[in-house]
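Morning, I've got a small favour to ask if you have a moment. I owe you a coffee for this, so here goes:

…
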Amino acid sequence: MISQLTSQQLLINLFLLVLLGFGLSTTVKANTSNTGKAVAIYYDVSGSMKGPETRWLAANYSMQLLSGLISVDDELYVAKTNSPQNFQLIQGQNEINHFILSMQQEPIPDGGTPYAGISTLLQALDKSNKPAKWLIVITDGEMQGEDDPDKGLTQKDYEKLLKPDMELIKRAGIKTSFVLIEEGANEQLADLWVKEVAGEKIIIPKASQLPKQMEILAAKLTDRDPNGLKFNKQGSKVLVQSIFPLRSMVVVSQGENNIKVDKAYLQSNAGNRALNNINYQIKSRKDNNQIHKYGTVTHLDFEQPIDLGDEKAVIEFDGSINSIELAILPEVAAKLNVNVVDDKLQPIAKNASGFYEVCMGQNIRLQSSLTDNNNNSLLKYTNDSSKFEVGFANGNQPLLSTYDKSTGVFTTILTAQNQVLLNPYAKFPGYFNFQSDTINIQPINCEREVEIVNETKLDSDLMWVRNINELSNEDAMTFSILIDGKAVSQNEIESWNWKYDQDRWQMQIIDSKVVFTPKTTCCAFIWSRPQAYIGNFILSVNTNNKYDTIKYPNNLSYEWRLPSGIQKYWWLYGCPFVVLIGFLLLLAYLFRIIFTKDRFGRKARVHIERDGFRNSEPLVRSKDLLKRWLWPSKRESKSINGITFYAVGRSGHSVLVSGKSLEEKHSISNWMYDPDAKVQADVRLDDGGLIVKEGVNYNTPEYRMQYTTSSTTPNWPSNSYF
């Protein structure tokens, strides 16, 4: 009886320890309690659960244990078959306690087992941000679809419900387990899950065997050994000393008395340090000779991993523990690392469906290592290496592996022949039973026939003969590419390494075809034109895939011919001729820009005095500056008050009036220049010269002007003679 109770206690708890499990990725963490997990349970409370009393009792008691094993950082989603569209989310210690109390009420089984609850829970898991996700279905009957519930799950249900759900499972990395209660239960759905998403299927022939069968499930799914740690009882105390660094422990107790953990601490010569202690109590509503009436699940969390010196854990209960069954399940501070690589040790990536696609007949290497948090091999903690089991299993059959002491890596070499599901695992009695995601190896036929088809238009003599000046892509040398008779994508063509005569030909990829045209260039004073040439076009390619068989066309004879007549000379010399003419025009323009300087200065002004009032006017407007510099004029002019000024000389410092220079004494219309006049000493209109306009009376000028540049200012004489 005692051994049976121990088995029940361990099995149920370990089944639930699925939830304390491990990461579902290539690197499988053995200690996921820090990051948390999401667990969804679809619980069958249909009418068929009214069967033997132990059926609902065992399932109900298991749900309590399961809830107690959920950490305060975890998420528990529970949906029942009598309300499949609704689920309950349980988080935190208070909610867990409340849920366990609610589960202690006797269920009232009724109704059917609709599939819809599975979809509801999967959607909830998909929205969760927890790294590890589980779906567990506990049922004793056949699932009902939406198409025709009386017929079970139909093809329409598969297309509408099951297929999308299985895609979600693969995409979100959800681990699935089906627990089928009752001999003869329909296994169709569970078998589909096993095939498509590598799920687990456990059959319970009789409800009374539920605890024992769950122990089998626990051994497959949990990262903690179902046997638990060895310990010493001392009255109301339990002493535990580990050979591995531990992150936490779960203490499960069952008995007729309601005894729980009072306190726990780590004891060493350096002093004690307390452990975080969380208790969950479970109980059976009815007495039953197969399951104890009371039970507790206690979480003991370490702020730091228990060290491997003289430190040991001391667990004190609030009563004598002689009559209760105990199991202490350790969480080793370690991780199981898994890699899938090829012969060159390059990682093999998963495809969109989560499979490892490898070429048929290719050797692959499956690598696994068990390390502590500092990436040291866990083998360093014990000399008893014979107890370690690390490797891969095909079903229940372990594969041969070799161990490299220098790297701490176990390697299994496998030749890809048929699809195979492999389960990475690591075991050590009493401590752990790590298992990662199932590795799905899917061999594919990598051998391809790559055919290069010549589509070039040939002459009657089966040669490619073209006038160079008439070439176009449509009439060039063109090849289409086929892989196993189908057109290949342009991106793949571009990734290949093509080999051809690059001195004479240039390659383009147009509409997934490869086009070659004679290479020509024309640039400034360096130009190159193809000359008349006869040769054989030879083409090869490296597709970077050793499994490709490449079928090439026959070598293609070709001839380049220059056009005849005037077109020939234009083809040969047109480009350099155009470049030369353009260059000469550029020189002429630059010469005009640089050397045309005979213009008014940019700030030259004419100052005017009339009847005692003075004003000034620029000879050059600011808006004309850009025009003056882009296209300068040698004879710039400006009319002011009917008098036209012309810029001459360097930088506009000399001026012509009405086309005549004022360099010597002369008369221009009614203008007078007199170098002997004292007040007209600077009348040259050069750097402040003065112009006096003659009025009716010579001695009474009508008005006067003065010219200044950027370096001069007006110099008005004070003599009233003017």
User: Anything to note?
Assistant: The mean pLDDT is 76. The CA atoms of residues 228 and 430 lie 5 Å apart.
